[in-house]
Task: inverse folding
């Protein structure tokens, strides 16, 4: 897991507030994935981004959730007007330039969001 | 949806080899088999991957059957720190190439 940096590691938000989770991919990686893991459940794919482009957002909730990966800086997962059901671990992962499923995806240690 | 089938749980004695099976009968010719594990409250950790040939690294060995419909992850000398959920994933070779996680196998290494 070394190399994919996520922050904050733990975040507490009140219902209705906004949560912003940041992810810096491994050096040389230009592809970022976000996953969510609800308590006692499996990892669910949310979104796949390359620099300045969303490639696959098939796992993103239709409302309140957005993601970006700007030309400069980390990838951001933004959750607006959080609700208690958003409490989960959010994992970021990165991989080198795509084009082959032989390129390994590496995960960060996660950001734990608690909505109170 | 996950394209693999794994037993929900397994036990292994410390110091013995842990052999974790995975069925992926619908795998396509250009799809890789990946193994990850997740220790409680940590991010998924990459273990190994392969296409057709058997693979070995410092963590584990991956044995893929000739017809590619199943594989086995081998931890040669399991330790207590290997207790984790192990995921076998068939990675699609087109589109976003995302990893689709199933329920995995909960491996418990006992002293």
Result:
């Amino acid at each position: 897991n070394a190399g994919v940096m996520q922050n904050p590691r733990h975040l507490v938000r009140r219902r209705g507030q906004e949560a912003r989770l940041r992810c810096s991919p491994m050096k040389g990686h230009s592809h970022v994935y976000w996953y969510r893991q609800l308590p006692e459940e499996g990892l669910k794919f949310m979104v796949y981004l390359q620099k300045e482009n969303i490639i696959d957002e098939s796992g993103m909730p239709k409302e309140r959730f957005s993601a970006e990966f700007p030309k400069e800086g980390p990838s951001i997962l933004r959750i607006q007007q959080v609700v208690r059901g958003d409490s989960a671990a959010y994992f970021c992962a990165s991989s080198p330039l795509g084009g082959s499923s032989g390129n390994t995806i590496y995960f960060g240690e996660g950001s734990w969001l608690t909505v109170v | 949806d996950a394209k693999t089938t794994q037993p929900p749980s397994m036990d292994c004695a410390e110091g013995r080899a842990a052999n974790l099976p995975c069925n992926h009968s619908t795998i396509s010719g250009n799809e890789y088999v990946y193994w990850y594990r997740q220790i409680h409250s940590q991010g998924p950790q990459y273990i190994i991957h392969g296409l057709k040939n058997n693979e070995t690294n410092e963590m584990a060995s991956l044995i893929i059957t000739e017809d590619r419909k199943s594989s086995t992850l081998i931890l040669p000398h399991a330790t207590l720190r290997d207790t984790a959920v192990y995921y076998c994933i068939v990675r699609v070779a087109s589109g976003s190439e995302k990893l689709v996680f199933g329920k995995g196998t909960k491996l418990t290494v006992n002293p």
Q: What stands out?
A: Chain A is about 0% helix and 50% strand. Chain A has a mean pLDDT of 92. The CA atoms of residues 46 and 62 of chain A lie 11 Å apart.
